[in-house]
């Protein structure tokens, strides 16, 4: 039990297969009601696809577990309709500080630019995040959330997947066209199917201590190398909601994990850090060993692996849950098009291709962070400490300091779904890039670009004033909206409104023009997951149709 949080108990209901003595057949089944599984269910439901979500428990995760949720994950949660509650409850931060012994040697700002809706990070205990996601899922009519439903067997028949599910009332069977596997790092389904996961387990251990205390430390990430209160090791400090503070202590490999979790071992470490006068209570304690591993492929026929079931990274950098949420963001729109017969099943191969590339980037950064934080030889440690000693005064050394390269959105620049540039653009909004946010004015008032974008293909078209859209262009826009894969046209203007009732965003502060290098006539094709598919300096309906075909594997 936690002193700051009461665990919800979700109601088990007798499944209809048992109540009506029949087998079930469903378009999509998801296994695992953690953040990734519930996010996938919500995404499918808001796009009109019914989904069954199975979980072997009846509450949220025990302990705070994941802490940091990055700007991109929050933007995805906005698209799913549940970010605001998370941001209001969580602790927002942008600044991180790194110390060597007692001296600050490095700091960073995750969001140095103005005019972004969401902060670089929020800190929020995972049980809150899961509770808010479940609540959002329960509000949607297309989600059948089944608690205490444990999958005990899976069979892939090629044209469908069969599951055997154990419940308090006995076992039942169901079939699904598509199975999304989000059952965590140990993934029973991955083991049932005999599928691979390869990588590296690091020979080090860290103690997590969640501590309830009142402290006026700034809401920043603080990381120490070799501090006087924990010599020759590293320590990380984060503030969470409810005056809960996360402290990570490096322990080394040659320790007894069960012994280190005992209060008589934990409390002296915390007192050495905070001082004897600071009052605190232990909320949750755990010891972990981290690993960097992934499956070779994330799609196996009609089984689609996501989150920790597909890839695992060390916690430094907050790349676990954030990456898993981006998995579902990438997957669901593709699955929806395939299920609707508007794209071939090969589109789902690009889910694996794009997210394997993203996982490799995360694994590389996570491995580098781990090697810097926990050097495995005297030479590596001498190099690491030399870098830290120089970092305060020399920029070249600062660039080498690595206390956990924090989660950033994946730029899918090598994706075969992109249409390469044929003209010159400045800035970061290259094909494959996740969209940058910006403030806008709509007919109903002030808003944000990413609150308007997503869930469908969209065309951003920059006009100089309200008269530069001629009849032929307006007709071409209307044809795109009525295409088999519809494309919604959004006009970006400095002032005024586009003719013909076209959706118009007023870029009154000029941030969209700046971040997307817009000029009159500039056109962007955006994917449903808010990634750039293509861009041109002038609108050409034929080029847009070709790029759309490429982005949906219909070329």
From TrEMBL:
Its cofactor is FAD. Gene3D superfamilies: 3.30.70.2450, 3.40.30.120, FAD/NAD(P)-binding domain. InterPro entries: FAD-bd, FAD/NAD-bd_sf, RIFMO-like. Residues 26-365 form the FAD-binding domain. Keywords: FAD, Flavoprotein. SUPFAM superfamilies: FAD/NAD(P)-binding domain. PANTHER family: BINDING MONOOXYGENASE, PUTATIVE (JCVI)-RELATED (PTHR43004:SF19), TRK SYSTEM POTASSIUM UPTAKE PROTEIN (PTHR43004). This is FAD-dependent oxidoreductase. It comes from Aromatoleum diolicum.
